[in-house]
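Narrative summary of target 7.
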Amino acid sequence: MSENCVCCDSAVSSSDAIHGVDRLEGLPGEFSVEICPKCGTGRTYPVVSELELAAFYPEEYSPYIDAENPTGFLAPIKASIRRRLEARTMQRMPFIELKGARGDALDVGCGRGDLGAKLIAAGWNVAGVEPAENACEHARAKGVDALHGTLGSVEFDDRKFDAVSFQHSLEHVFDPRVDLRLIHGITRPGARLLITVPNFGSTHRKLFCGRWFHLDLPRHRFHYTPEGLTKLVESAGFKVDRVTTATSVIGLPASLSYALLGSWRFGGVAGQRLISYSGLLLYPVAYLLSRISGGDYLHVVATRN
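Modeled conformation, tokenized:
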């Protein structure tokens, strides 16, 4: 049964739902995303409990493990091109907002600690929250004070944070309204809230529908548009300063894989190299698509009231 939109509280109908399967991990079942007619936010059905969510993530889920370093005689060239593309994308990412600042930061869904390690190198004290214990171990090895659990289960005592990031994690949570209100309670006035999620309002999503790579059913429970995410963040007591989008390297080739082959067919090191190289080659096309209605990544920068 449909519930009201989590972002704008409008009534949602199942008549215009997107249907799909787990094309990345191959979990059984069919899932649907019901879309709010007012702000465009999507929600994945069937709704499952927080305990059931854990079953959607295998131990080898990519954000939980450290990626292998590129090898071979082309590795320096590939790394240089990739750095340039990532720098172009990062110019519009909200994390640039923390450049030159210092304080206590919290990375929600810290994964293996990649972002936390960068913030530590920049002078921040970084704590993380992550439901996968093996990912917490990787993060701790990089200096992140990674707490095993979710925002609703971990204890922060009297800690207050100057910055909080949700880097591709707010789409995974059981109830984003509850999580953002919890964040409001553990941040100082003026703290920065930095969110990156897939852009459900992008041309990429509209083109590929149920075969869009960043749909990632059933792990992504909510699917945000710029309008919907702005309303959600403001309802939790934050002032939205900026909303931008960016174009990912992997989104277009991975979506093409889903459209042509039906699933992810690029396992192993060779497959990772193939999808990586194709991402670099197709990036100009992906960027041009993004010029129509925004890139496939959505970024929000907000300040705690």
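The chain has a mean pLDDT of 88.
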